[in-house]
Amino acid sequence: MNWWKKPNSKWLLGIPLGGMLAFILGALSLGAYHGVMDYTNNNAFCFSCHIGMDTIVEEYQQSVHFNNTKGVIAATCADCHVPRELIPKLIVKITASADVIHKLTGDIRLDNFETEHRPRLAKHVTQQFIDNKSKQCRYCHQIERMELENQARTTARRHQMMEERGQSCIDCHAGIAHKLPQSEQSSQPAQSENTQDESSEPSSRAVNP
Ligand code: HEC
Ligand code: HEC
Ligand code: HEC
Ligand code: HEC
């Protein structure tokens, strides 16, 4: 038998060709998917709407996650706001699409952001960080890897105790990248709670700038 005569019918050739085509299409759409995901995770993308609409970007640019002695962008907007797991990420992307409509209708503007919108949005985002125990912060910061012995004693103690106290990073680090709504700027969670056993207070500026 001569194997080299096969495939007998030229149609059979369609199978490997079809497979190849499917592979190429698959690769292209995967590429497009990642392209869209990467693009929409970019600071430039977030900036494009939030600049001129609110003061979020400018505040972030003053923060240590954008400017610091090391000169690294420590965290992009998406690092803190978009989960890395596929399904939660897709949910955020889809629900965030509704933001486009708000943007287009111009509901939120520099002159009404602080009073009419920030309290609502901050409350919502804060709740997310409380519910997921500040999961996005922990992509980068792991308590287990903190050199607690090199932190101030009171700080180390807070980090050490936070899990058993069921705390979330932003219980103490609210306002780490943005100003807090005016109504909350006076209440400082890090200072009001968890101070029973501590006498000396660390700088409150960094905790609640
Ligand atoms: C198409 C314009 C647009 C783009 C692009 C955009 N945003 Fe927004 N964003 C908005 C608008 C408008 C709101 C307010 C939505 C509302 O009023 O509910 C908002 C609200 C938010 C909120 C608060 C949502 C909440 O849960 O209450 C976060 C966090 C946020 N944006 C982060 C981001 C990040 C991170 C990016 C980039 C990955 C981004 N945005 C890109 C327009 C945009
Ligand atoms: C280091 C993490 C971090 C980074 C980086 C960050 N955010 Fe946030 N963001 C938060 C947290 C935490 C909150 C909840 C309120 C608070 O504590 O400030 C928040 C709140 C918000 C809100 C709700 C309104 C408000 O004033 O609280 C919006 C909108 C938002 N972020 C958008 C962005 C955009 C756009 C960027 C990039 C320009 C960005 N964030 C960068 C952590 C971050
Ligand atoms: C993508 C990685 C990343 C994410 C996400 C991230 N951080 Fe950071 N964070 C860093 C790096 C890197 C630094 C060090 C910047 C420097 O050199 O000062 C830092 C610095 C800090 C500091 C020290 C501030 C100071 O003034 O020295 C605090 C507090 C902090 N982060 C809290 C948070 C909290 C809370 C969140 C979640 C809301 C968060 N970070 C999310 C990478 C990240
Ligand atoms: C019970 C309050 C509390 C909790 C909860 C907490 N922190 Fe802190 N953290 C502090 C205080 C106080 C400081 C010292 C002042 C400062 O630098 O902000 C601090 C400092 C830091 C620093 C700077 C350390 C350094 O060596 O410069 C980082 C980074 C940080 N915290 C990250 C986190 C992250 C991430 C979480 C959540 C996993 C977290 N913290 C939870 C209170 C807390």
What this model shows, in words?
The protein has 209 residues and is an all-alpha fold. Helices cover 56% and strands 0% of the residues. It contains 12 helices and no strands. It has helices at 14-40, 43-50, 56-62, 77-81, 86-96, 98-105, 110-131, 135-140, 153-161, 169-173, 189-192, 204-207. It is extended.
For this entry, give a set of tags.
mainly alpha, 12 helices, 56% helix, disordered C terminus, NapC/NirT_cytc_sf, metal ion binding, NapC/NirT_cyt_c_N, electron transfer activity
Topology:
Elements: H1 14-40, H2 43-50, H3 56-62, H4 77-81, H5 86-96, H6 98-105, H7 110-131, H8 135-140, H9 153-161, H10 169-173, H11 189-192, H12 204-207
This protein binds heme C (4 copies).
Summarize the structure in short.
This protein has helices spanning 14-40, 43-50, 56-62, 77-81, 86-96, 98-105, 110-131, 135-140, 153-161, 169-173, 189-192, 204-207.
Give the distance, in angstroms, between the N- and C-terminal Cα atoms.
Answer: 82 Å
> For the residues shown, what is the average pLDDT?
82
Bound compounds, each kind once, are:
heme C
What structural class results from the helix and strand content? Answer: mainly alpha
- Coarse shape: extended
- How many individual β-strands? 0
Please bin the fraction of helical residues. Answer: 55-70%
Q: Biggest sheet, in brief? A: none
Note the beta-strand portion: under 5%
